[in-house]
Specification:
36% of the residues lie in helices and 16% in strands. With 323 residues, the protein is α/β, with parallel strands linked by helices. Helix 1 links the parallel strand 1 and strand 2.
């Protein structure tokens, strides 16, 4: 959208990520958008240990020509042991193609401090795209309790509401990697919070033909090979699911998706369901004698349920079809 002076209005975004192949694709997607300014990147444990995630974020900013501060974030979840996902993303997190050590360095701040500080200094001007476990966001809430009022829009990639999980039978990976952090974020009162979970991302499977149509020399095609092989074994058909880029697209173009609005929580104690996102979806009358199971003081959020898959995949193809 153009402003009255003819300049493009740019959404300023803080990215919190655990790069990660689909995290890399999300950065390609954002870099391709003239209506975006990436204000900062914070890294977190998840797909790989946080030290590897930070190195990958630095590599990607260098490759993409982004002059963006990168802050190292939480190395472990709030209340459980660290688990990573090299089987999905490769030992280096980028499908074996991480490459040389980065020439740049992270800032001296933690990712949580960076998020809280930027939000305080730019009230209402920054949006947050959180595409890894939510540990940094939970820690930032402890540093700055006003964070939900200081940020503009927040989009989180996580959850499996009415579909199976991917890391367990019921839980999606990002929320499962730190359930306590995810629940703290959902309960924090963010006024414009959108959750992009497996209910919608799994509809956006990009088949092998999509990948093979990319130029042979483009970096995304190289790193996607490992990812596509994993999905071939996981789903029985080669290709990949672009979870994180879809979350980025929904942040920029909310009308790419449709939504269920509700109050959400994370299951913290279930033997089989720990890390699962839940909502009380019963059709109860306002004066029903049955109480809501999810605390009614929680602020409602939007949960994406369908997406304009063809439009999004075309956008993503254009964004990644470059060296």
């Amino acid at each position: 959208m153009a402003s009255p002076n003819g300049m493009i209005d740019r959404m300023r975004i803080i990215v919190d990520a655990d790069p990660g192949i689909d995290d890399a694709l999300a950065l390609y997607y954002l870099r391709d958008r003239p209506d975006v300014e990436i204000a900062a990147i914070g890294t977190v444990h998840g797909n790989v240990p946080v030290e590897q995630a930070t190195a990958n974020a630095l590599r990607l900013t260098e490759r993409l020509g982004l002059d963006v501060p990168v802050a190292t974030g939480a190395a472990k979840p709030l209340a459980q042991p660290l688990m990573t996902a090299e089987d999905v993303h490769g030992a280096d997190g980028l499908g074996g193609y991480a490459g040389d050590e980065p020439t740049t360095s992270p800032t001296g701040q933690s990712a949580a401090e960076q998020l809280a500080d930027l939000a305080r200094r730019n009230p209402g001007e920054l949006s947050l795209l959180a595409i890894g476990p939510l540990t940094n966001v939970a820690l930032a809430l402890q540093i700055e309790p006003r964070l939900p009022r200081l940020l503009d829009k927040v989009v989180v990639m996580g959850g499996a509401l009415n579909v199976p999980g991917n890391i367990t039978s019921h839980a999606e990976a990002n929320f499962w990697h730190d359930p306590e952090a995810a629940d703290l974020v959902l309960a924090a009162g963010f006024e414009d919070l959108t959750i992009v979970g497996l209910d919608v991302t799994m509809q956006c499977h990009a088949p092998a033909e999509w990948l093979e149509a990319l130029p042979g020399d483009c970096y995304p095609r190289r790193i996607l090979g490992f990812y596509a092989d994993f999905y071939g074994s996981f789903l029985g058909k080669r290709g990949f699911v672009p979870h994180d880029p879809l979350a980025a697209a929904v942040l920029l173009e909310p009308d790419l998706a449709t939504y269920h609005e509700d109050r959400f929580a994370i299951e913290l104690t279930g033997r089989y369901t720990r890390g699962k996102i839940v909502a009380d979806q019963r059709f109860l009358a306002p004066d029903s004698p049955f109480g809501r199971d999810i605390a009614t003081e929680r602020t409602k959020a939007k949960y994406a349920v369908t997406a304009r898959t063809d439009v999004f995949l075309d956008q993503l193809r254009r964004a990644v079809a470059q060296p």
